[in-house]
Amino acid sequence: MDKPLQIAIDGPVGSGKSDISGRLAKELGLTYLYTGAMYRALAWICVREGVSFKDVPNVFPLLSKYSINLRPPAKDGSLGFAVWVGDTDVTDKLFTPAMSQGSSDVSTIPEVRKFMVARQQELVRGKSVVMEGRDIGLRVLPNAQLKIYLTASLEERARRRWEQYKTKDPTKTLVQEIEETKIRDTQDTSRAADPLQKLPDAWELNTTDMTQDAVVSAIIAELGRRKLI
Length: 229
What we know:
Elements: E1 6-10, H1 17-28, E2 31-34, H2 36-49, H3 56-59, H4 62-65, E3 68-71, E4 82-85, E5 88-89, H5 97-106, H6 110-124, E6 129-133, H7 136-140, E7 146-151, H8 154-165, H9 174-190, E8 203-206, H10 212-225
Parallel strand pairs: 1-6, 1-7, 2-6, 7-8
Antiparallel strand pairs: 3-4, 4-5
Helix pairs in contact: 1-10, 2-5, 8-9
């Protein structure tokens, strides 16, 4: 291969980007980078510092005060990555409903997105990667050989999130999760900085009625069709 294979996966919340990206990267022997973890880490920093997620003047300076890095996971880690803030592994603190909402809030800040994009481009320079998020094909990997827009119905995406978080918040109902997913969709698609969108050169894959195995197989088939693997 003349240059590193880079796959950009974008899509709305609950479309399966994280699970599929991790599995695809493992299948192909590529590095997996979950950009949302960096925004979750910033949300965690906000909580630590007592700063509101939407307090723009005080959120952005935190990126100069703290370093956020993605590293290989610990041997007993269930994820394909570990998130460090300074010298602290904060991975197990980031996957809660509060951090999920916080990441969405801080990601609407243009200065934050600009900083994160530059950092993410630095992390993947010269590497074969599967990278997922909301603006990967648009900003982070505009020259990716395959851009994927992964989606699913609103109800199915909400159901997945409800299943994922119900042990952490057993009082939440599926109806509430559907409404919160609608709000997240509005935030992601209407923000001023790099709103979520399906790019003209992106291959769309609707995962509503697909298993994870079927989704990974479909992507690998598409890579083969394009003679990328």
